[in-house]
Amino acid sequence: MSRWCVTNPRSPAPPLLILAVLSALLLIHPSIAWRPWPHHRNNATELEFGGSKKYEGSSEFVKLRYHMGPVLTANITVHIIWYGTWPKAQKRIIREFINSISATSAQSPSVSGWWKTVQLYTDQTGSNISRTVRLGEEKNDRLLSHGKKLTRLSVQSVIKAAVTAKTKPLPISPKSGLYLLLTADDVYVQDFCQNVCGFHYFTYPSIVGYTLPYAWIGNSGKFCPGVCAYPFAVPDYIPGLKPMKSPNGNVGIDGMISVIAHEISELASNPLINAWYAGQDPVFPVEIADLCEGIYGTGGGGSYTGQMLNDRDGATYNMHGIRRRFLVQWVWNHVVNYCTGPNALD
């Protein structure tokens, strides 16, 4: 599913406590994306380039298991619903990220290199998650068919409207399609900014008519960039900490990219909430991206993001797409039992 590690800004919590708190929070919804909350640091340099150590997750406590459900082994098609008003430039950044997932020609470290970790996950037949992720059909809901405030259930109603529209409905692809509902920066979704930046689940046939894996991700640019676009914006409770420069010049969208990546990786490995996750109860699973919340490079863990890259223009990123740079969190590698990414130094 999708959450982001929530920690106390004043006192570090040990790994077991973090997992316990996370599990309790997940009772709210089986798949919620949380953003990392950094502990107080004296400056951004320490946060970005602190002493490197082998701490990419905690293999001692993680018991990620396969629960015999399907993963997305067929070529994956990502269908987007643009809810609200979306400038062309913002759409372009998101499209280019999705198109970069399968773009093997991109400069290393690359988005396609990041996806190779996701591909390691298999179903009960031994078939791997597909290496092919492509951008599918798109649907614009500029008139906000369900208003500017959405509940978790009305999110599914928006998806229903997109797949049953009289003109150019989105195709129905239960086995290989992923449906991304992306809300504009003036749209509020239930629990948004209260540590929730996105979530994924599957649609109910009673509402939509089909069981479709989907995710919602919000643009936090106006509502809460310090929560959902960190480290390109910082929380108000950390005075003096300077935000990092976003690689594509848009804090809200660059913040969304990592949440979108988080959700797509978990939709691929746990689309019906019965495949790959840690924990005993699917009501509050901890999935492959949850285990690596806030980790973007070697040495990452706790309040430290790990070693990332800085371009000549001062922008911070950790991987290349087709034409752009992105900052994307790592995902759990069940073969080596820790978080991995294409920009790893070891």
Automatic annotation (TrEMBL):
TM region positions: none
Pfam families for the chain: Phi_1
InterPro entries the UniProt entry points to: EXORDIUM-like
GO CC term, one of those recorded: apoplast
Organism (species): Lactuca saligna
Family per record: Belongs to the EXORDIUM family.
Name this polypeptide is given: Phosphate-induced protein 1
Chief subcellular location: secreted
Signal sequence, start to end: 1-33
Keywords on record: Apoplast, Secreted, Signal
Subcellular location: Secreted, Extracellular space, Apoplast
